[in-house]
Amino acid sequence: MAEKKYVASIDQGTTSTRCMIFDHDGNVVAVGQMEHEQIFPKAGWVEHDAAEIWDNTRKVCAEALANKDLDSDDIAAVGITNQRETTVVWDKKTGKPVYNAIVWQDTRTDPICKELAGDDGADKYKDVVGLPLATYFAGPKVMWILENVDGAREKAEAGDLLFGTMDTWVIWNMTGGKNGGVHVTDVTNASRTMLMNLDTLEWDESIAKDMGIPMSMLPEIRSSSEEYGKVRHRGVLRGVPIAGALGDQQAATFGQVCFEPGTAKNTYGTGNFLILNTGEEKVMSKNGLLTTVCYRIGDQKPVYALEGSIAVTGSLVQWLRDNLKLIKDAKEVEKYAKEVDDNGDVYVVPAFSGLFAPHWRSDARGVVVGLTRFANRGHLCRAALEAVAYQSQEVVKAMNADSDVEMTELKVDGGMVVNETLMQFQSDILDVEVIRPKVNETTALGAAYAAGLAVGFWKDLDELRRQWAEDKRWKPSMEDDERQRLLGRWSQAVERTLDWAE
């Protein structure tokens, strides 16, 4: 039998699904990718067709293998990473979802969250799960499906329905689906449901009861790096062990080899997600951040993290392109931003689905402030890029306060880090150095690392540390007076977003 030279990674993201194949040095050797439909039934509602995503998953795996002329015998293991909190409920007998997947950005569960909070407030479960009651998380989305889909409650109580985030959905289908599919999730995804106790790493029965979610719906919680089962689905990757699973932001942290307490990364994607490794001790935030599981390798102790989640960053550029038609291509945003000397005192606060960390205000809505006749397309493009950096600065400030450790540098990854204007402004507004790695696909790489570790493809974390390499570094060059002036104006702009939505 031929030596297995590669590890595959399935990256099931918010806008697309990819299969990436990595060699032993962590280099990308092949990619398959397909976008899926974004469904907006009402204002604030965001859905995906989970069946379409599973269909695309099979296709991108086949495409990636074909691009390098490989077959399953060449692949040592497959890792899964996924858009977190996006929630799917399906019938285990038919394998069909009872409703579209409800996406992490969706805000329809705001009334449910308020009802659950009652007199206790949004932090009712925070000591147990590390999260505030917010529309972002999966538990209330399951509640909504059970309460609003005909027959769902009865089927759930009869034990016929299963719940999962997208990692669970993909693994279940890949390992046989309705014919014996493995119903599992990993600790990082489970920590985003509002249903997992952060200390025991087990489902909390009392919270599930409060939400009316039968325990029979919930997947088994496993570590991030172990063999869950082999691919049994006909066709691509058949027989390959599925041996790693991490929510996308934890996967990016793993791919950035942030294995020591105090190391941090910021991913610039549809939204921005800044994660700080806090080690084996969980740190409960006093400044609007989330306490979450960073990763767990096999039967080792879990590693925890503080996270700041920002809903709208890369999707703000898509909004300029698709809704306002200011640009034809996302790459043009930097071109027009560079045509002006500064933002012209224009600020964009993209609170399209409320404000996430550190504010957690679901009543906020987006604003553009400071418009005069002087303002042009360049100013709006620059203000949009700066909004990404300002929102990240708010999270870093909260993180420094929570952890009592001043961040000295920031590792970055994701689609927007090719935008050098943004990266320089990020360094300036944070007053720290910003570092981009050579392999920017850190989310898919992190899932590959977790899977490869589990099957011995990579020996240990030290071997992974040695693979990380720097591509470019930006150093702050802004005077502190100017930094403070800009941050003050940004704070004024954020105030204008509040108390808008009912």
Automatic annotation (TrEMBL):
Organism of derivation: Dermacoccus abyssi
Binding-site residues for sn-glycerol 3-phosphate, renumbered to this chain: T14, R84, E85, Y136, D248
Carbohydrate kinase FGGY N-terminal domain location: 6-255
Binding site for ADP: T14, R18, T270, G314, G415, N419
NCBIfam families xref list: glycerol_kin, PRK00047.1
Swiss-Prot/TrEMBL catalytic activity: glycerol + ATP = sn-glycerol 3-phosphate + ADP + H(+)
Keywords of the record: ATP-binding, Glycerol metabolism, Kinase, Nucleotide-binding, Transferase
Protein name: Glycerol kinase
HAMAP family assigned to the protein according to its UniProt record, in alphabetical order: Glycerol_kin
Domain (Carbohydrate kinase FGGY C-terminal) ranges: 265-454
GO biological process: glycerol catabolic process; glycerol-3-phosphate metabolic process
Binding-site residues for ATP, renumbered to this chain: T14, T15, S16, T270, G314, Q318, G415
Metabolic or biological pathway: Polyol metabolism; glycerol degradation via glycerol kinase pathway; sn-glycerol 3-phosphate from glycerol: step 1/1
InterPro entries attached to this UniProt entry: ATPase_NBD, Carb_kinase_FGGY, Carb_kinase_FGGY_CS, FGGY_C, FGGY_N, Glycerol_kin
EC numbers: 2.7.1.30
One Gene Ontology term of the molecular function aspect: ATP binding
Regulation of this protein's activity per its record: Inhibited by fructose 1,6-bisphosphate (FBP).
Kinase recorded as keyword: yes
Family statement: Belongs to the FGGY kinase family.
Binding site for glycerol: R84, E85, Y136, D248, Q249
Pfam families per record: FGGY_C (PF02782), FGGY_N (PF00370)
A single cellular component GO annotation: cytosol
Record function comment: Key enzyme in the regulation of glycerol uptake and metabolism. Catalyzes the phosphorylation of glycerol to yield sn-glycerol 3-phosphate.
